[in-house]
Amino acid sequence: MITVLAFLVTLGVLIVIHEYGHYRVARACGVNVLRFSVGFGRVLWRRQRTPDSTEFVLSALPLGGYVRMLDEREGPVAPAQASQAFNRQPLAKRAAIVAAGPAANLILAVFLYAAAQWIGVDEPRAVLSTPAAGSLAERAGLRAGDEVTAVSDDGDAWEDVVSLTDLRWRVTQAALRGERLHLMVGGGTGHRGRALTLDLDAVAGQEVDAALMQRIGIGAPYSEPVMGEIKAGGPAERAGLRAGDRVLRVDGQPVGDAQVLRERIRESVRDGVSSASTWVVDRGGRMLELSVQPRMAGEGKSAVGRIDAFVGLPAEMVTVRRGPLDGLVNGASRTWEVSALTLKMMGRMLVGEASLKNLSGPLTIADYAGQSVQRGLPDYLAFLALVSVSLGVLNLLPLPMLDGGHLMYYLFEGLTGRPVSDLWLKWLQRGGAFIMLLLMSLALSNDVARLLGLH
Fold first, then answer.
1. Domain spans of the chain?
2. What are residue 255's phi and psi, to 5 degrees?
3. Which of 164, 260, 377, 378 is deepest in the core (most CB within 10 A)?
4. Which Gene Ontology BP terms does the record give (predicted)?
5. CB atoms within 10 A of CB 175
6. What fold does the segment set 227-313 form as a domain?
7. Is residue 19 flagged as an active site residue?
8. What's the pTM?
């Protein structure tokens, strides 16, 4: 239920803001707005103050909205109202009205990102867990417990890293650009730690998903390999493990952090058989050797080991909070960066340099909306900002069904002095509808594949 409500709120806010951008600028330009609709199809609710004022409606299908303006191309217009018709407006006004929707989404994103930072977001410190074997991070020399304090594109100008989330964002940007990223490990504000380099050109064009950081080698935040709550009757309790035990070695191999320990537990099941392992633990200064045999969870190749205990201490968190002006500046900067990266990723998908699996649809948005709500208001605001940027950028694409397509018509009109012919408009609309249907189908199939674990 939370996921559904969060999804509906997300759509409602973004659609209303987008259409309000069109509505507000149209009114400012003297255009008569006949209807402001949130959703399509059967009207569920309507409000109209006077017969001559704008009709506000809520429709049954909430996947979009529209603003219907007085227009001689859609029906007869009384001579007294001709000056209020959209098609009678100068080219600059028509372009401004069309561009106002995407612009409203981008402006909203700035304030949403700023609001999240004004409230303060709890994020894990940029202390790294053990990089995956053979990953870029391991080859660069990163180890469990390393804290990344600054990053640099050129190795000279360094910028502070405020959290692990901040580090992941900067790494993602560099990966999409296919560029190296220099990391400063330790050293604090003075940047006098040891400098390492991630060769992110090796992952350029790969699918940007939850596993991207794992492929690079920057996974979960560092968590000490200390046992938490032990479930009664489970393998951990039978082995003699207790809450507070620090695991030092498993079968003679050192355990750097909780992530490594969890992987050892999962991998203890092979070919449908669970194998016991010897753990060396530190219990209040005493070294104990225990035999632990995880139980098997799942079937076949997907079977993994479980010990029915909480493994690892909670990651150390920091509260990222900015002042009013700093928050707005950072919100504008983040909106610009996300917009640029979105366009770059779309371009790479278009030329085949990036996977089409990066396209997401309503199911993925709904899933992420529900997750962000459960993490708190700042996380949800940041998620809402991300979707708002995506909606704004998408609508600026030069596709006939989108605002960007109409802006292309106006560009043609401005350059040639004549509007696009009705015949060309008809064929362009048909082509645009086909492309949009294709993209929606692909996004929905990606959503289903993610939910089924196929991606």
1. 1-18+89-120+321-455, 30-88, 123-221+315-320, 227-313
2. -105, 110
3. 164
4. proteolysis
5. 24
6. Pdz3 Domain (2.30.42)
7. yes
8. 0.77
